[in-house]
Amino acid sequence: MAKTSPAEFFNQVRAEGRKVVWPSRDETVRTSIFVGILVLVLSLFFLGIDTVFGAVMRFLLSLA
């Protein structure tokens, strides 16, 4: 495989950078809100699972 010179490498990087389609501000805000809501829901879910498992473990350890 032929080696690429640093100048050619940076030209290729700039060419690829021009192909990038950046999201609009509205898409970014919508996605950020969705991620925040999903994090909240999943954290509550895992809190519930952890609480249930903790209660089960306390019950099992109280039997010993």
TrEMBL record:
InterPro entries registered for this protein in UniProt: SecE_bac (IPR005807), SecE_sf (IPR038379), Translocase_SecE/Sec61-g (IPR001901)
Primary localization class, coarse: membrane
Tree of life domain: Bacteria
GO CC field: plasma membrane
One term of GO molecular function: protein transmembrane transporter activity
Subcellular location: Cell membrane; Membrane
Topology in membrane: Single-pass membrane protein
Positions of transmembrane segments: 33-61
Assembly description: Component of the Sec protein translocase complex. Heterotrimer consisting of SecY, SecE and SecG subunits. The heterotrimers can form oligomers, although 1 heterotrimer is thought to be able to translocate proteins. Interacts with the ribosome. Interacts with SecDF, and other proteins may be involved. Interacts with SecA.
Family: Belongs to the SecE/SEC61-gamma family.
Protein name in the entry: Protein translocase subunit SecE
Native source species: Tsuneonella aeria
Gene: secE
